Known about the structure:
Layout (H helix, E strand, L loop, with lengths): L1 H4 L12 H6 L7 E4 L2 E4 L1 H12 L10 H22 L14
Antiparallel strand pairs: 1-2
This protein binds glutathione.
The site of glutathione (GSH) has 8 residues, from loops.
Amino acid sequence: xxxxxxxxxxxxxxHKAPEYLKISPFGLVPAINDGGDALTDSNAILIYLxxxxxxxxxxxxxxxxxxxxxxxxxTIAACRLPVRLWHVPHCRRSKGPMT
Length: 99
Ligand SMILES: N[C@@H](CCC(=O)N[C@@H](CS)C(=O)NCC(=O)O)C(=O)O
């Protein structure tokens, strides 16, 4: 999303490192630190990025039906896909499906 929006960013692959755990206490990705403001969880991050860097763009529709469609796919990605992927052996995580 950052690349789509043309926002410069740096990545840090050490998601269990003490510095990263200050931003993301559960040690999960994604998490961002935007000018000192830390934020975790993909859906929250996606909406924050669009509202901050692309306000009024097509990425976050205001039409109720289009907004509902967006929320539907965000929900599917966050809730249904991880549970479905749990049944695919090579996608299985040691801690169980994401909830
Ligand atoms: N609800 C969180 C889920 C975050 C999550 O489970 N991330 C996984 C990767 S998709 C992770 O960090 N796995 C590394 C680990 O468990 O150590 C979100 O949507 O951001």
